[in-house]
Amino acid sequence: MTEEDVDIEIQEPYNLLKGLNVADLEDLLEDIEVYRTIEKETNLEFWRDIMVVCEDEIEKLKKLERSERGESAAERRGGINESVTSDVSSIFKGKDYGELVQLEAKIKSKITGADGGTDVGYWESLLQQLNAHMARARLKAKHQAMLRRKLWQLKQEQAEEFGVAGTPLFPSAEGIKTEAEDSRTLEEGKVSEGEDTQERKQPEAPCEEAGSSAGVSGTKAQESETLIAEEDLLEQAYLDYESGRYSPKLFKTMDFSEEHVVTAEEDSAKRVANRERVLSGETLVSDYSEIEMQRKVDTDGIATEEYNFNSEVTIEHQDLLWKEKYRPRKPRFLNRVHTGFEWNKYNQTHYDTDNPPPKIVQGYKFNIFFPDLIDKRKTPTYSLKPCQDNKDFAILRFHGGPPYEDIAFKIVNREWEYSWKHGFKSQFNNNILQLWFRFKRNRYRR
């Protein structure tokens, strides 16, 4: 997935953590670990930075709880007294990533060259806070770079739309550095930074040198010549967001014929008829035709390797406590099975494209419709149980709740691929439970 395919938020990603409590942040940490495991090397630095920020927010909340309980001992163990915490935070505030890298080098040199009179605990606590600020700075820099690229893309799309594709509407964006160049420049600055030989006997906040400030200001002046001002970018992004360029086009009533316009009286009569049908006990509750279900599933159509899969398994006994109150009914469904060739070593040896191997089941797409759930707060669930008589198959059972009975299907019993990159989807949206998955490929090694 490229950055052009991603919807970019206007605010920085770490701002989304504000307002969460400790339990929510700890749950978020577990989710981040899952994404790091799934994506492996992809966006690894982003997940590492957001994890550092999340841990820093957790530590702040826990420190706030300790201060409210009056635990002064915990404050002493923190290395920095609460009375100077705001002063330390003001030192980090407003600095870009390059300035924070220089500050990190000074603090590390202070720790490595510490003597008996240096408060090492203070400097280590300061370094820990600095790591969180550096993570925020990296996230902010990446987010601004993505905003610039997205804005440039929008400008180019508008230029093509109005027939002025040859005119550079966004010439200043050509000087934008890539993330790799930015990180390489920052690393070179970090290595070339000299160690601060001056020793402080008492704990104090690190000061900035005039030379480094001059160098940073010179760098900022060069960047301002090639990059668009951040305020202009944000203002333009807000304008594009408010204009709703990707919203559906608004049609006028006169654009439609009278036979296509549904009046309020017709809509009310249809609702009354549906309610009467439910009270009469008819099994057809909602007018879901095959075409309507096909439209709601939101797929790209049936490919040559996908076939309808409608073989339902009968569930012998269902103890429905609510069957006296509601008339039980089966949910509608639109399922597909994905088949294809598996070109392993054996098949490559014994088959070719003219004489292909037999097709095997590679995955399924289940779309179960629950339009009339009584309790819409409860999400429908599914469960998988191997067949007793044949372990090569399993029973996939879906449970929605009243007024729907459970529904089950017999599928191939193989290990699922849970990565979204391989098409896994498990969600309940628009009254549709979608479960899409593919099987892991077997790789044979000698």
Describe the structure using short key phrases:
44% helix; Splicing factor Cactin; Cactin_central; disordered N terminus; 446 residues; Cactin_C; seven-stranded antiparallel sheet; extended; alpha+beta; 11 strands; 2 domains; single chain; four-stranded antiparallel sheet; 12 helices
Structure description:
The chain is of the alpha+beta class and 446 residues long. Helix content is 44%, strand content 13%. The longest helix has 42 residues, at 120-161. The model is unreliable at 1-5, 72-79, 167-180, 189-214 and 283-304 (pLDDT under 50).
Topology:
Layout: H1 22-39, H2 44-69, H3 72-77, H4 82-92, H5 97-112, H6 120-161, H7 179-192, H8 210-226, H9 230-243, H10 264-280, H11 290-297, E1 306-308, E2 312-313, E3 332-333, E4 336-340, H12 345-350, E5 360-369, E6 381-386, E7 393-399, E8 407-412, E9 416-417, E10 425-429, E11 432-439
Helix pairs in contact: 1-2, 2-6, 5-6, 6-9
> Which range best describes the helical content: under 10%, 10-25%, 25-40%, 40-55%, 55-70% or over 70%?
40-55%
Query: Taking Cα atoms only, what radius of gyration do you get, to the nearest Å?
Result: 30 Å
The count of helical stretches stands at: 12
Characterize the largest beta sheet: strand count, sense, and whether it forms a barrel.
Answer: 7 strands, antiparallel
Q: Tell me the number of structural domains.
A: 2
Portion in strands? 5-15%
Structural class: alpha+beta
Extract low-pLDDT stretches.
1-5, 72-79, 167-180, 189-214, 283-304
**N to C succession of SSEs:** HHHHHHHHHHHEEEEHEEEEEEE
Q: Termini, distance in Å?
A: 34 Å
Given the C-alpha coordinates, what overall shape results?
Answer: extended
Please give the number of β-strands. Answer: 11
Q: Whole-number average pLDDT?
A: 72
Domain Splicing factor cactin central: 4-143
Protein name: Splicing factor Cactin
Organism: Geodia barretti (Barrett's horny sponge)
Region (Disordered): 165-223
